[in-house]
Specification:
Blueprint (H helix, E strand, L loop, with lengths): L5 H11 L4 H32 L4 H8 L3 H8 L11 E2 L1 H17 L6 H7 L5 H8 L4 H11 L24 H16 L4 E2 L1 H9 L5 H8 L4 H12 L1 H9 L19 E3 L4 E3 H18 L1
Parallel strand pairs: 1-2
Antiparallel strand pairs: 3-4
């Protein structure tokens, strides 16, 4: 491997700033920043490869000499847009952090798939799918506690943790679920991994703790699978997107010809009235948490 040639770098700085010594310092800083960016891209490339091979953020953080959270924050979005590589949706990252907080609140040493299931209520398509199936975060949390008694709750799950405090690592089952989510996203032809893919991996795995929680709550697993179809089934994704003639709100059923404004999503439509109602619901939830 060719090493970085210091004389060549000095010559480049001199070429950019052949004036005062202070200008040369500024040019040297610019060259240094460019080198650092390339170095970060180099490490980021192999971090992305490690994630695709199923390595956890905990393991990656240990190799980098930083915490799992620091590794994820630095590299999670760096691969966006790279050919053949998947990036984790910001909503999925938020749900993963919520799952870690849930496990920490339980006093658990690892994040289990039941913690991931609760964490998915944080945001994204998975939360909407579960709520449509009649599932609520508190009920799922209670069922998870009943099936898998915690070591002892150490904090409130939704409360922010002190800066620098370490969250528990993912269990083997949780890592398998993450890998399953990546597989579902690839199969669906997506360029990202979303909350819906993780929900699919959890709900479709009959041996996972998350699946046992859903069964305990008498959740309609087939109904959840049907809702997931437009996200994780390539053929259904194509059909739903191509179905432009039936333009009606997926929530209230109002058709486009009724005069309401509609916005299209991945296989769904939502009208302006339902958008306003959703805003009111979110405002109420925010007020309840305050």
């Amino acid at each position: 491997m060719d090493t970085v040639d210091l004389p060549a770098l000095i010559a480049e700085v001199s070429r950019r700033a052949d004036g005062s010594p202070l200008d040369q310092i500024e040019a040297a800083l610019a060259v240094s920043d460019e080198l650092q960016a390339v170095a970060d891209d180099l490490v980021g490339h192999f971090v992305t490869h490690a994630r695709q091979e199923g390595c956890s953020w905990t393991d990656i953080g240990q190799r980098l000499g930083v915490s799992k959270q620091a590794a994820r924050q630095r590299f999670a979005r760096r691969s966006a847009g790279a050919p053949g590589e998947l990036t984790e949706q910001p909503r999925l990252l938020a749900c993963q952090e919520a799952a870690c907080r849930e496990a920490a609140a339980d006093g658990a040493t690892e994040v289990g798939t039941h913690h991931q299931l609760v964490g998915l209520f944080e945001d994204g398509a998975a939360a909407a799918i579960m709520e449509k199936a009649g599932l609520r975060r508190d009920a799922v949390r209670e069922a998870a506690h009943a099936l898998f008694p915690a070591a002892g709750e150490s904090s409130v799950p939704d409360a922010p943790r002190a800066e620098g405090s370490e969250l528990p690592p993912e269990s083997a089952g949780a890592r398998e679920a993450q890998a399953g989510a990546v597989s579902l996203a690839r199969r669906a032809g997506c360029c990202y991994v979303g909350t819906e893919h993780l929900l699919g991996a959890l709900a479709l795995d009959p041996g996972s703790r998350a699946r046992r929680v859903l069964i305990q709550l008498d959740a309609d697993i087939p109904a959840i699978k049907r809702e997931l179809e437009c996200y994780i089934s390539p053929s259904r994704r194509r059909r739903r997107r191509a179905k432009g003639g039936d333009q009606r709100c997926s929530f209230c059923g109002k058709a486009k010809d009724s005069g309401v404004a509609l916005v299209a999503g991945p296989g769904v439509w939502i009208c302006a009235e339902c958008v306003a109602l959703a805003g009111e619901v979110l405002d109420e939830r925010a007020g309840a948490r305050a």
